[in-house]
Amino acid sequence: MKSSLSVPTFIIVVYACICSPCSHNAWAVPSQEQKAQPSEALTVTIPGPMRSFLRMAGISQKVSPEQVLPLLARNVVIQGYEGWQDKPFRRTEFLVLLRRYVQQARELEALAGPEGVIRVSNCCDARPLLDILGFRFRLGCGQNTALETADPERAFLTIDSGFPLVDLEENLQAGKPFNYSFPDSPVPVLFRESDWTSIRGAKAKTLFDALIGDPALARLYLAFSRIDAETRLALRQFPGLTKLIPVSAVLDFYGRYISIRSGRVVVPGGITAESTWKDLVGASPASPGEFVLRLLAKDKGWLAAYFDALSRISHSQQAHFTEPHRLKGFYEAVRGRDPSPNAYRPVFRPNPGLLLLVTSLRWEPTGEPQVPGNLEIWQEIFRQKSDSKIVRDWAKRARRWKSRDQLVQAMFGVTQAQTNTGPLQIYLLVSQLNAERSPERHLTPQTVRLLANKFAQFSNQYLIFSEFPDLNNASITRFLTVAEALDRIPDHTLRGNAMGIFQSSVGLWQILVRQGEISSTTLNDSWQRVIGPFAKISSAAQLFDAGRDSLRELLKATTGKPNCSQNEIIELLAGLRQASPEGQQVHQELADRIRSVLDGQRLVSLDTILALGEGLDAVAKGRREERTLIPLAGELREFEMPRPIFSSSERTEWATGFYNNRHTDLEMRTDLTRLIKSHPSPEQLAKARGQLAPFLRDTLVGLNYAYYEPPGAQILHHNPLFVRSHDFSGDTVSGMKSVWQTPELFVAGSPAGGGAHLVGSLADLPYPMQPSPRAETSKLLFPSLRFCIVSPSRQGNSLPQFPAEQRFRLMIGVISLLQGSVGIWPLVDSPPSPPVRHVLPRLGVDCRRFQRAVF
């Protein structure tokens, strides 16, 4: 096939989809609920083959027949409209293409006739089909027949839906008949189709058209698909689908746990709480239709959100919340003075804090809610400065609190505050920390106050205290005091190195304790000895000494001796020694993997760094160590920066977001060999020892990276700057509130702009390590990703109108519908080689059936 389009418009767009062959009969299997209704229509018909429809609707090929319409409704709701509550609706490109495909599929279905087979015996028969597909003959019919685009919109749908256009072209060239099965696809439906199409205001004649044409109806269908069978049958009878349309969004978000049994709504708290719910809703649970309708409509969905949150917890928990004075008081706090904004803003549920509070709140044996510290401490916490008006309003009432219930009521009130560092977040985290501790180790009021005061800055660091609840109040206080002292270091470079060495030392401590290599009986002592050397840092030399001393304390707590080689440290990180041959083999593989990361990052060995430090100390004391130190100093300069691909001017123009890595630049300029040969003074030697601190930071951080490297990752082996580029002090970005939080990935996919690197702390390092290789390789996140090499069988299909050197520079845009997001990955052809090979990442696609793109 040949194209009439020009090179600037040349782009291949392929939808990544998961292909799993399903027989036609499989799609006609009714659900158990439908089998119970023999008088009702069990299915609706989707025009065209199921495989093509699922591709265009963004639905996995692996779904069951019962899931097709609910997933279609979900995609229409989430991806089909922009601001769909406003009229006229603004359809997204996804929905526009889907509607066009449905129209094209119906035209092809009519062409296929009652048999459901498209038959083309010659070129004359092909013309009606080509008109529908959006193509035409380029040079007439015959052996040299070639197809070209006549209608770009139709042609795009033809290719995107997987129509076998190449087979059609080849059969026409060979004078063979072309037969293609194009049946309609029945799928199970909830209720009768007429129940949906007869809804007041519905304009579509079929449920399928109604789903892709009316977002409110699509959302109602999605909501009903999540409700149990008995409840949805009761709701269909009363209040009926028409009355539920206005509250479809609320039912979608909060209807899953609405349950109707024996003609009554099952309410949180059971029968004893029914009277209170009747007062809140304005209808009795014994009248399920009226109760549900009022529940969904009241206070813009907030009462339904409250009902849903309480429905998710155990009966014993519900008993505490549904006591009459609590049920009403807590809801009034959630509702606030004005229930705006509403509780059903598309497309995700607002106010996650409500659900977290209800499911996380703990109770004393006396029935009172647990409060870490004491009530006075939480009054202080609420009075802290806040940007949220909701928090400030509740802070004004804090002075009048006399009971724990009043504190919990305030927590319900601030669930709507849009903040990640408010009183609710502090309460949830501190409560979790306290709950994991034995009574004698509960957090003191002073510790709770300190954790709250430093929450915005160090909250992600608190995960350490959750993992190791045996760390006592003194250990927690010591950590926060040292961390705050490091954060106050005025020099950016020194602060970044100090934070890196400190956090990597803490990270190694966590690993060794977790693996049982540090005794639980010495937990607090070893913790304080590891972090203690960092308490007072004012120079690079002091930092190097602190890092060395901290490492010695760590090794002493682990092995009983303060000095170990780098290989011995790696063996410790690989876990306890194993007795079985299989265990020994795994241990060795883990150790080798850590070594390979350190080698891939070109990191200086700890043995070299520590030996240089000791040697410089010895020289300062008058000993002659030049012959020993000069070879070691030379190892610091073995690493070289990659050659820049842009000049300075080109980088300014093309590499937006470029940053200069001062840390790496300083390492490249370090030349201890020259210093050692120049007979330095004690002051110069002390400064030289401080120049080792960045190298110590890199190697210690590299050990943490290597330990947490995800299986199959490649970035730590292919990008030697990744560890060195970790920005602990936030020099490479602006607007980051706290660098002590979980690190974030920056500049992914922009190697000319400095390359991907993490900015932030080492807190929860395994989590940010997961997405970082995505910019470098798709293998990590998608281990099942398969690569199809599509080789055109004839030179005529290899874009002959373009010279070879141009063909190999064409960009291929691959649209990947993964995890509900769309990303465009540019791929470049391999060097010239006949025939042209386009390497396209696909998910489960049969490469032999892959259709070449037509332009």
List keywords for this structure.
855 residues, mainly alpha, disordered N terminus, disordered C terminus
What can you tell me about this protein's structure?
The chain has 855 residues and is mainly α. The chain is 48% helix and 8% strand. The protein is built from 42 helices and 17 strands. A 3-stranded mixed sheet has the order 1-15-16, with no helix packed on it. A two-stranded antiparallel ribbon has the order 2-9. A hairpin with a 2-residue loop joins strand 10 and strand 11 (264-265). Helix 9 packs across helix 10 (215-225), helix 27 (473-487) runs parallel beside helix 29 (523-531) and helix 28 (492-514) packs antiparallel against helix 29. The longest helix has 23 residues, at 492-514. It is flat and about 100 Å long. The relative contact order is 0.07. Mean pLDDT is 83; it is low at 1-41 and 772-855.
Which percent range fits the helix content?
Answer: 40-55%
Shape: flat
Read across the widest sheet, the strand sequence of neighbours is 1-15-16
Mean pLDDT: 83
Q: What is the number of strand segments?
A: 17
N- to C-terminal distance: 9 Å
* Helix-strand makeup class: mainly alpha
Give the low-confidence spans: 1-41, 772-855
Strand percentage: 5-15%
The biggest beta sheet, please? Answer: 3 strands, mixed
Tally of separate helices: 42
The radius of gyration computed from the alpha-carbon positions, rounded to a whole number of angstroms, is 33 Å
